[in-house]
Amino acid sequence: MYEPLPESLNEYIPNDKDIIWKYMSLDNFIYLLEYNCLYLPRADSNPIYFEGHFFKSDIYYLTNAYRKDGGFEKPIDAAKEVFKHLEKYKSCTYLDCWHKNSDENFAMWKIYGKTDNSIAIKTSVKKLKNIYNNKEKSDCYLAEVLYYNFDDYNISKLTNIDLLPFIRKPDFFYYEEEIRGIIQWGGMPGVEYPLFETIPFTKRSEHFELSDFVDEIVICPYSSDWLLKLIEKLLREKGIKKIKISNSKYRK
């Protein structure tokens, strides 16, 4: 079920009215249609190591805190042991990444569309929350990503040490303007979890109406002429109606 972020992370709760986009290749879109669900990869399956990562500056500040506390014989070793344990949370945390924007974005098409024949689905934070309510056996959070500078960020800002490492990213990634969903199986780091989680669109119905979730499907500006007709055909075969499908307005 969807759960609000803990009170200490209130500043990262996205606005229900925020428009969000997911850019994907054609095969990922077909997966979404075929299995009626969102696909969430495990945090440690991302080749970019920044997901849930702790940095030398984190260890430095925690070591100083332990040193001031006076209760640790080797403060730096104690700090490293804490972060070694916390790194294991990558294996039980799943991420659903969305781009916040009122319009299409060139970088998102190139980086996350991956091919010329790609699509983007457009929805809102409020509608995504409704989908998250279909995940009955685990808590689902939504957060606006915090982009930070290495020089002015430290462990003292980690108000929730389990979740915030998966909300923060270096400002190197600021262009993503990301809102992300997080599923975390708390208390069991180190257990062998599957590489992905799924969130179904519906609980009881055998058929779902994609228009209840997606406001628009937009075709990549560099796509082949046949792609729009193919998407229309795929939706028609699934009985999905009342949804806007359009070519990018930046298409030549």
Please give a structural write-up:
Helices cover 26% and strands 23% of the residues. With 252 residues, the protein is of the alpha+beta class. It has one domain. A 7-stranded mixed β-sheet has the order 5-8-3-1-4-10-11. A two-stranded antiparallel sheet has the order 2-9. Strand 10 (216-219), helix 6 (226-237) and strand 11 form a beta-alpha-beta unit. The longest helix has 14 residues, at 56-69. It is elongated, with a radius of gyration of 20 Å.
Strand and helix map with partners:
Layout: E1 19-25, H1 26-35, E2 37-41, H2 56-69, H3 75-87, E3 93-100, H4 106-113, E4 118-124, H5 125-132, E5 140-144, E6 146-148, E7 168-170, E8 178-184, E9 196-200, E10 216-219, H6 226-237, E11 244-247
Parallel strand pairs: 6-7, 10-11
Antiparallel strand pairs: 1-3, 1-4, 2-9, 3-8, 4-10, 5-8
Helix pairs in contact: 2-3
**Share of residues in strands:** 15-25%
Radius of gyration: 20 Å
DSSP helical segment count: 6
Overall mean pLDDT stands at 86
The structure class reads alpha+beta
Please tell me the total number of domains: 1
Largest sheet: 7 strands, mixed
Order of helices and strands: EHEHHEHEHEEEEEEHE
What share of the residues lie within helices?
A: 25-40%
Summarize it.
The chain contains six helices and eleven strands. It is of the alpha+beta class. Strand 10, helix 6 and strand 11 form a beta-alpha-beta unit.
